[in-house]
Amino acid sequence: EIVLTQSPATLSLSPGERATLSCRASQSVSSYLAWYQQKPGQAPRLLIYDASNRATGIPVRFSGSGSGTDFTLTISSLEPEDFAVYYCQQRSKWSITFGQGTRLEIK
Amino acid sequence: QVQLVESGGGLVKPGGSLRLSCAASGFTFSDYYMSWIRQAPGRGLELVSYISSGSSYTNYADSVKGRFTISRDNAKNSLYLEMNSLRAEDTAVYYCAKMREGVADYWGQGTLVTVSA
After folding, report:
1. Could you tell me if A46 lies within 8 Å of chain B, comparing CB atoms?
2. Which helix (H) or strand (E) holds B106?
3. Which chain A residue shows the shortest CA-CA distance from B42?
4. Minimal Cα–Cα distance from A63 to chain B, Å?
5. CA distance A107 to B8
6. In 3-state terms, chain A is what percent helix, strand and coil (to 5)?
7. Of A43, B62, B82, B109, which sees the most CB atoms within 10 A?
8. Is A51 helix (H, G, I), strand (E, B) or coil?
9. Given a cut of 70, is residue B6 above it in pLDDT?
10. Are B22 and B96 within 8 A, CB to CB?
11. Which of B46, B95, B105 has its CB closest to that of A46?
């Protein structure tokens, strides 16, 4: 099973700042990496798929990069509604696994 | 627009059974893989199972293999999860998700399953 490790576990920033979230895979997943956002009491929402493609309706301040084992989700300038938990997810070799999540909180 | 509505959750005793349903609308259900993803209280996400568009292929997490069965009825635009021999560790919110190339692009609101004596 491919293990995804997200860092940091918690990130404390202020609105307007840049957020950089990391996801590392235990083996290569090529570009088959997605990012989701989850707010309290809500279902997750797809943000990024195939490492760098924004899902429908996702603002341009969200961007993804990386390939192989190291991936990054960047939020260029934080809006109040961006404070949430973010998960990465890989799909490869018929296997789908999620990272443990990064909590983005208001500083 | 895509809508996924889960039902069937509730309180069940250890060793008991439950059947979850997911009603889909707003897309051609029979064209897409579907999955069940769960989230234990205060925890992360775990893929429970997924099923191919025509039901020919299914996949299960090791933690539920042999106890849970995923199925679908394309004529009714519905997805199901039969859960048997339930354990306390199965307590979670269960989400139905539409899959597109291994990515969950739409999610339902979830249904809570609580396994407790």
Report:
1. yes
2. strand B103-107
3. A40
4. 17
5. 40
6. 5, 55, 45
7. A43
8. coil
9. yes
10. yes
11. B105
